[in-house]
Structures are given as structure tokens and as C-alpha cells.
């Protein structure tokens, strides 16, 4: 195997399929959509070059900014929810009874497809027959809200299934990281008389800091470009109350047939995500690497 | 060492496999000499629309039998995939020779891009006077017709007669009676009207009918084609009436978050007595065996009531669904046109008797063996004074989006009727 890996030609050959795919499927479309953003184009007819007009319109478009605000709200909530997942992972990783089973239970939402989750939660939220409102009526709430129809509630009503959907993923990552900590360190701390809480916060947490920082980036980037449940559950409605950047881009390009403008919004979404990722990486990357 | 070699071989193989996959390995399957092939794409897959699918196949088989040397090459996709594929094919100028399109706004970019062939010659030669008035016109742009309509849908208010009888109510003929019906159901704790306004075009139907009854058949069309205005008092009043209905609690709880399908299921499970929808739902109330017989028997329809004594009850909201187009740069354009015309001629009776579709071509209802509700609706169509095309279909796609968003806001009371009018004016004057 060593011999194979020292042959430059072979290395080039081996990475070329993946490289080709990434180029063709990611980078070229990326550049193209930036280019389409410079056009007035309905997606079918001729393109007319209009310079930066689409981008300027995008920056002045209140609907875009309100959808960006919703995306950032989601990013904040998913970052905060990481704390809950971390706590759960701490509990699961300590030797409690049935932690194996619990871990699998937490993972189940991740195995469901987004559309199935969306359909499930649409049923839960159904204002007349949904399990949530039926329950609320049972315990005496007179007029339970129409979750997906109320502009002030709809966004948070969708956040819950989104966070629920990814819980298993983050718990799994944290769990693996925690299990990776050598038992000897914990043992030593215990001998020194550290309490379980101290072990968790003073020893385990610093040791998995790097993993936490990665999950923060994943959560934020994932939130900013989030699309699936929003699209299926409300398609951004009512009247844009649950619109996020990606669903707004989709609406412009595929419902309004405004491909040029949609591409420009898509490109702005990319730039915003890049900047945010850069800042978050800067803030969260630990100074030194930890060696066990 | 052996494993080493095997890994090498495997990796090589996978690389070549990938590269081979990228290259175009198109097979040249041109059939026997001189045969002309018409590529035809439609959107009724066997799985979800078996009856439609069978009718199409029957027509194709008949056509091939009658026309030696012409073959129809079929591709079937489901609705949304169909739309996507059509768009992609059009950018690479590879549209099928004959395919399906929607009316008005949907056509615009395709016609603008010179993708569809004008079909006026076909209509003049082979199909003159065979369409219900107003249907082929919906496919016209700048005086040329680009589509041959297949379906026609009109919107009527379906109601559950059993539930009405229980409350001792009669079918309302005027808006004032409708308001009374709503009140009575409300008092009994029943939500009166099923509405899934997440899709927004559903709410648009209510607005359109109110506009038609208050301002006549033309007021909305004129506002859209810019010879009128959305600030017309009749249109503002229609928007006001919508909000009056919302204030009365006429629509089911949380309608702005419900999809049309969910609203429909509330009507069909007899939780809600009224539902405004187009005739594409007729099979559910007549022939669909999976729907309980008892329910089907208790459903009746009524024409949208007059408002304050105004309006013509024979004026309908509706419009053609899909129609056939012929590609402008088709290599077999004449054959394609001929096939399209043949298809439309055959479609009418077969569609209504076998697939339960109200066709856009005139059919003699009384001579066919049909459920009573079909015969009534077909006769209704013969007496129709006007059919106003669905507003979101009439408008260009970007304006339609504004319309749909505004409808949600109007029903959700986030907009006043005046702001509703202004939003449309702004979008249309761009």
C-alpha cells in the first residue's frame, strides 16, 4: 500500500473522480449561479445582462431581509439547543441503565426522511384534529392556537421539529467524543475527589471542545441554508411569516420564474453563510490541540 | 501483495466506470426505415392516474393503427416532475414534439422563447367550433393560440345535504342566506366552510367569485390586463366581504396553515358542511368507490350565490387545466399537429366516461351514461354566461406569487382591503 501512495500519478488518478464530481456538481454551478444573478432571465427565454441590478435589488428587498432574519433566528436556536444535546450526551455516556436503548431512541428522527417528519408534524399541529390541540383542549385551554396559521407562532412551531430532527445527529457526535476520553483521566480525577459535575465541566467538556466547535459550525451553516421542513410544512407562509433564505430563493426561481433574481439571492445566501462560518470558526477554534 | 494488486484493479475499474458513465453512450434506436416518430410527453402516470393513462394509450394505439408509418414515442412523468423536465428540456431546445402545457401565465415564457408552435391553423381546419367557448382562448397570446385544451374545470360550492337537513337548512341562493347558514352551523359548534389556504389559490376562488358577483364578469380580468384597476370599488368590496366572512368564523380554524388536501378531508369526513372547489373533485362525490356511498349520496353542489342581489349565477370561476402544445422546432411538426388534433377529438367522450374528466370539447351529456352530477354540471356549462380564468393562472408567474401571498394576508387579516388592492397595483405596474 505504501508503494501505491508514493506514486504521484496514481494519487492523481484516485482523487480525480471525486474531484471531478465536486467540480461539476458544486463549484461550476456555484460560479454559474453567480453569473446568472447578473442576468434578467425567466429560466427559459433569452438572458439579458443587467449588471449588478439583481444583487442591489436583493440588498434592498425587505422580504429577503425578513427571511434572512428568520434564518438567523433558526441558527441561534439550533446553537442554543446544542447545550441540551450536550447535557443529554453526558447522561447517556455515564453508565446509566438503558443508555443504549435511549441512544437509539434519540437517533430515530434522523432516520426519517424530512418529508415524513413534515407530514407527521403537520398532523400534530392540525388546529382541529391535531394531537397537540386535542390535548390542550383536554386540559382546559379554551382556544388553542392554530400553530401553522398564526404568523407570530408559525416560525417557532416549525423550529421544534427541525431541532428534534437533528437532535440524534448531535447527540451521536457528542456521545462518540465523550466515549473517546480515556478512562484513566476520569479515574485520576475521581481519586483526587472530583464530583461528577466537576468531572463533566472541568475535564470532559474541555477535552471535547474541538468537537463542540465543529458542531456549532455545522448547526449554524445548516440553519442558514435550511429548506426542507419549511417548504413542506408551510412553503414559507402565511404571507412570508416562516420564509427562510433558501425557501425565498426557491420561490423566486421556481414559482415566480425569476431565475436571474433567484440566482442572485442564492449567491447572497452563499456569501452570508461563508462570512458567518468564517467568523464562527475564528471565535470557536481552540488555540492549542489537545493530546491525550 | 495480492491484495495490493486487487485494490489497484478495483480502483482502476471504478475510475473507468465513472468516466464511462460521464460520456454519452446514447443508443441510436431509430426504428425501421421511413417511420416517423412523434415524441409525446404527458403527466398521468399509471400509478396515480390509471384511468387517464389508459385513455391516452387507447388513443395512441388507434392513431398508430389509422396512420401507417407514424409511431408515437411516449414518456410519462408525474405533475411536478413534468414541470421541471419541461423547463430543462426547453433550455436545451429538446422539447417533445407534443406535450402538455397549462394556460395563460404558464405559457408566457415558452411562447416568449419561441418554443411552442401557433395552432390556429389546426383549430381552423379540424377543430372549429368543438371547444367550449373561453377554453382555447385561455391558451392565446397576442392573437395566436398555442394550446389545445383538454380539460375544463368550473368551481362550485359543494355542500353536505345531510348536515344541512339536520339543521333544517336550505341550500343558500344569496350571500345573505349563506351568512345565515354560517351562523346556524356556528351556533351548533360546527365550522361551516372547509378552506385550505396554505395553497392560497383556494382562498383566491372565494375572492374571485365575490368580485364576479359584485362587479360583473369583466372587472377582475380588466384589473389584471391593466384596462381596469384593483382599486375598483367592487374589487375592494369583494376583499372586504372576504374579511367579513373571516370575522364571522365562516372558515375552519387555522385555515391559513392547512393544505387543500387537509381541508378536503375535513369535508369528506363530514366534519364540515361546505367546500368550494373545482370539478376535478367530482369523482370523489360520484364514482370513486373508495369514498363511502353514504357520503357521496349526501353531497350536492350549488352555484355561487348572488351578493346583495347582484351578480349572474351562471357566471363561473374556472378554466382549462392542461392542454396540448406542439413544439416550434419539431422535426415532424405537421404530423405532430395532426396527432394533437386527433387526440383532442378522441379525448372528449372517452375522458368524461372513463376518467371522469370534464373535457374542454363540447360533448352531448344526455347521450352518455354518466352520474347525475356530471350531467348537471355539463348542462350547467352549456348555459354558462362566462368563465373567468383562475386569477393566479391569468397573471404572469411573479404577479401570481404576489396575488397568492396577498390572499393569505387578506384572509389572515394582516392586510386591509385597501392594502390588498395596492399590493396588486404595485406588482402589476412593475
TrEMBL record, chain A:
It is a multi-pass membrane protein. The chain crosses the membrane at residues 12-32, 72-93, 105-122, 153-177, 211-233, 259-280. GO terms for cellular component: plasma membrane. InterPro entries: ABC_transporter_permease, MetI-like, MetI-like_sf. One of its GO terms (biological process) is transmembrane transport. Keywords: Cell membrane, Membrane, Transmembrane, Transmembrane helix, Transport. It is found in: Cell membrane. Residues 68-280 form the ABC transmembrane type-1 domain. The keyword DNA damage does not apply. It holds the Pfam family BPD_transp_1. Belongs to the binding-protein-dependent transport system permease family. This is Sugar ABC transporter permease. It comes from Psychrobacillus psychrodurans.
Amino acid at each position: 500500500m505504501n508503494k501505491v501512495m508514493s506514486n504521484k500519478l496514481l494519487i492523481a488518478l484516485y482523487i480525480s473522480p471525486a474531484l471531478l464530481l465536486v467540480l461539476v456538481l458544486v463549484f461550476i454551478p456555484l460560479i454559474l449561479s453567480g453569473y446568472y444573478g447578473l442576468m434578467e432571465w425567466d429560466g427559459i427565454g433569452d438572458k439579458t445582462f443587467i449588471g449588478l441590478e439583481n444583487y442591489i435589488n436583493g440588498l434592498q428587498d425587505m422580504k429577503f431581509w425578513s427571511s434572512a432574519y428568520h434564518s438567523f433566528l433558526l441558527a441561534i436556536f439550533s446553537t442554543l439547543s446544542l447545550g441540551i444535546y450536550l447535557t443529554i450526551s453526558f447522561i447517556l455516556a455515564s453508565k446509566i441503565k438503558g443508555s443504549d436503548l435511549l441512544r437509539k431512541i434519540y437517533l430515530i428522527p434522523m432516520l426519517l426522511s424530512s418529508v415524513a417528519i413534515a407530514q407527521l408534524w403537520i398532523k400534530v399541529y392540525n388546529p382541529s384534529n391535531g394531537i397537540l390541540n386535542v390535548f390542550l383542549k383536554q386540559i382546559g385551554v379554551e382556544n388553542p392556537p392554530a400553530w401553522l396559521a398564526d404568523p407570530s407562532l408559525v416560525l417557532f412551531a416549525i423550529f421544534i421539529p427541525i431541532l428534534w430532527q437533528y437532535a440524534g445527529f448531535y447527540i451521536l457526535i457528542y456521545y462518540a467524543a465523550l466515549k473517546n476520553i480515556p478512562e484513566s483521566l476520569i479515574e485520576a480525577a475521581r481519586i483526587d475527589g472530583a464530583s461528577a459535575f466537576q468531572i463533566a465541566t472541568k475535564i470532559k467538556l474541555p477535552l471535547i471542545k474541538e468537537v463542540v466547535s465543529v458542531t456549532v459550525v455545522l448547526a449554524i451553516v445548516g440553519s442558514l441554508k435550511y429548506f426542507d421542513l419549511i417548504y413542506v410544512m408551510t412553503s414559507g407562509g402565511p404571507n412570508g411569516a416562516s420564509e427562510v433564505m433558501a425557501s425565498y430563493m426557491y420561490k423566486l426561481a421556481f414559482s415566480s420564474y425569476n431565475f436571474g433574481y433567484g440566482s442572485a439571492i442564492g449567491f447572497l445566501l452563499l456569501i452570508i453563510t461563508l462570512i458567518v462560518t468564517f467568523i464562527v470558526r475564528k471565535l470557536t477554534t481552540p488555540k492549542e490541540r489537545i493530546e491525550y | 501483495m495480492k491484495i495490493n494488486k486487487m485494490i489497484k484493479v478495483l480502483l482502476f475499474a471504478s475510475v473507468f466506470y465513472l468516466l464511462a458513465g460521464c460520456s454519452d453512450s446514447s443508443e441510436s434506436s431509430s426504428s425501421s426505415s421511413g417511420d416517423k416518430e412523434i415524441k409525446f410527453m404527458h403527466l398521468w402516470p399509471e400509478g396515480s392516474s390509471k384511468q387517464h393513462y389508459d385513455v391516452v394509450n387507447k388513443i395512441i394505439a388507434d392513431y398508430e393503427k389509422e396512420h401507417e408509418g407514424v409511431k408515437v414515442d411516449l414518456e410519462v412523468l408525474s405533475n411536478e416532475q413534468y414541470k421541471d423536465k419541461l423547463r430543462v428540456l426547453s433550455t436545451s431546445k429538446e422539447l417533445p414534439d407534443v406535450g402538455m402545457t397549462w394556460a395563460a401565465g404558464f405559457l408566457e415564457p415558452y411562447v416568449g422563447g419561441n418554443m411552442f408552435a401557433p395552432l390556429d391553423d389546426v383549430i381552423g381546419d379540424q377543430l372549429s367550433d368543438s371547444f367550449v367557448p373561453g377554453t382555447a382562448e385561455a391558451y392565446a397570446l397576442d392573437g395566436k393560440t398555442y394550446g389545445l385544451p383538454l380539460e375544463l374545470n368550473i368551481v362550485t360550492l359543494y355542500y353536505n345535504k345531510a348536515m344541512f337537513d339536520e339543521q333544517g337548512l336550505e341550500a343558500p341562493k344569496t350571500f345573505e342566506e349563506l351568512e345565515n347558514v354560517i351562523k346556524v352551523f356556528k351556533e351548533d359548534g360546527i365550522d361551516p366552510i372547509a378552506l385550505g389556504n396554505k395553497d392560497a389559490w383556494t382562498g383566491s376562488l372565494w375572492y374571485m367569485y365575490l368580485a364576479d358577483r359584485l362587479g360583473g364578469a369583466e372587472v377582475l380580468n380588466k384589473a389584471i390586463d391593466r384596462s381596469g384597476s384593483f382599486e375598483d370599488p367592487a374589487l375592494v368590496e369583494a376583499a372586504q366581504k372576504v374579511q367579513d366572512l373571516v370575522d364571522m368564523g365562516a372558515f375552519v380554524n387555522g385555515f391559513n396553515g392547512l393544505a387543500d388536501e387537509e381541508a378536503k378531508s375535513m369535508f369528506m369526513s363530514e366534519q364540515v358542511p361546505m367546500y368550494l372547489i373545482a370539478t376535478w373533485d367530482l369523482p370523489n362525490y360520484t364514482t370513486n368507490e373508495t369514498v363511502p356511498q353514504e357520503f357521496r349520496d349526501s353531497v350536492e353542489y350549488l352555484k355561487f350565490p348572488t351578493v346583495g342581489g347582484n351578480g349572474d349565477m351562471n357566471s363561473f370561476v374556472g378554466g382549462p387545466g392542461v392542454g396540448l402544445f406542439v413544439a416550434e422546432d419539431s422535426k415532424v411538426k405537421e404530423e405532430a399537429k395532426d396527432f394533437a388534433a386527433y387526440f383532442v377529438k378522441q379525448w372528449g367522450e372517452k375522458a368524461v366516461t372513463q376518467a371522469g374528466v370534464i373535457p374542454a370539447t363540447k360533448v352531448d351529456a344526455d347521450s352518455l351514461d354518466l352520474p347525475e352530477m356530471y350531467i348537471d354540471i355539463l348542462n350547467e356549462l352549456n348555459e354558462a354566461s362566462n368563465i373567468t380564468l383562475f386569477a393566479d393562472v391569468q397573471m404572469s408567474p411573479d404577479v401570481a406569487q404576489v396575488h397568492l401571498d396577498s390572499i393569505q394576508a387578506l384572509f389572515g387579516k394582516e392586510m386591509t382591503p385597501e392594502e390588498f388592492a395596492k399590493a396588486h397595483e404595485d406588482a402589476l405596474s412593475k
